[in-house]
Amino acid sequence: MKLANLGDMAQATRLRRDTVDVKTNLNRLTQEMNSGLKADLSASLKGQFSPLVGLERGLVLNETYLASNRAAARFAEGQQTALDNLQSIVLSAGPEFLKIASTGEDTQLGVTFGNSKRQLDQVISALNGRVGPQSLFAGAATDGPALSSSEDILSGLKVALVGLTSPSDVEAAAKAWFDTPGGGFETIGYTGSTLPRSGMDIAEGQRETLAVTALDPAIRDTLRGFAVAALMDQGLLSGDSIAQRAVLQEMGETLVGATDQITALRADIGFVQERIETARVRSEAEVTGLRLARAALIEADPYQTAMQLTQVQAQLETIYTVTARVSGLSLASVLR
User: Fold this and answer.
1) Is residue 244 within a helix (H) or strand (E), and if so which, with residue range?
2) Which residues form the Flagellin C-terminal domain (predicted)?
């Protein structure tokens, strides 16, 4: 009987080893084709992970800055929207005050005084606006409103004006109540913080504060214009229409002047928005570059992977064919 020789055994062993190697490569390439990622990073990077770690750190850092940048952009947009609403009210009321003060009937005068309380409420509502949990114009006190209610403001101001009978005295006392540091407005009307809100990192090494608060002179003047007019509906200078017209004239001029101040405030915020947008574009470009660099290290080339997969499949089919032929030897052929 003819026995299998050592050459046959070596060939069989080699076929088994080749089969294992080819199957291992097939599994690896199939995994890379499905995931798009290199299966053995250690071998691909030759054990040098420092570049990949640096890229990952850069991505995390830039994405953190982008999140903060988006928050700053939303906050700035919230301030712009609130000031836009505020400016619309002032733009309408200022000229109307001047018109009624000079040519309006007494009945129109009364209607204007009555409307002033409603307009004051609208102004306070705009300035107490929030973006998410953060108050827009309260400085560092972001968890609460910037201003107290119109009723509280009017009550406090009324005490400061009680007994005054001349327009000039009323105007001076009202201005002092709103503008004096630590005075009536800052202790009764403003409920925010005198400290600015914390800055927001919009990019690496770049921070914006967005520090406009309801203590700004433009906002104080706006509130004063409406508050004094509203108090005339509650009896201030009652019975003296000439004095009331003089005060309304002054409040109209105050509101017209506040319009320009609000425009300047919005322009300042607009410059901040421009810097935020520029930083966002730069950070997004950096993130794109970092992602491409990381992809070059960890992602498998789909074209190259497909070619290698085809070659490995062909190798496996060849091994199976050879194995089948070897296994197909019959007992009769061995005995011959």
Assistant:
1) helix 241-298
2) 258-327
Same domain, yes or no, for 151 and 279? yes
Rounded-to-integer distance, Cα 214 and Cα 196, Å: 11
CB atoms near residue 225 (< 10 Å):
30
Q: What DSSP designation does 4 have?
A: P
Q: Is 293 helix (H, G, I), strand (E, B) or coil?
A: helix
DSSP bridge pairs for 130: 135
Question: Which stretches of the chain are assigned E, i.e. beta strand?
Answer: 130-131, 134-135, 200-203, 206-208
Please count the helices (runs of H) and the strands (runs of E) in the chain.
11, 4
pLDDT in tens, 139-195: 999 999 999 999 999 999 999 999 999 999 999 999 999 999 999 999 999 999 999
- Angle, CA 141 vertex, CA 199 and CA 258 arms, to 5°: 85
Identify whether the C-beta of residue 225 lies closer than 8 Å to the C-beta of residue 255: yes
Residue 35 forms part of a structural domain: no
Q: Does a structural domain hold residue 45? A: no
Among 282, 281, 273, 261, smallest CA distance to 77 is for 273
In the chain, the N- to C-terminal Cα span, in Å, equals: 8
In this structure, are 330 and 213 located in the same domain?
A: no
Distance CA 261, CA 265 (A): 6
Write the pLDDT tens digit of every residue in 50-89: 787 888 899 999 999 999 999 999 999 999 999 999 999 9
Is residue 129 one of the residues assigned to a domain? Answer: yes
The pTM is what? Answer: 0.78
Specify whether 238 is located in the same domain as 336: no
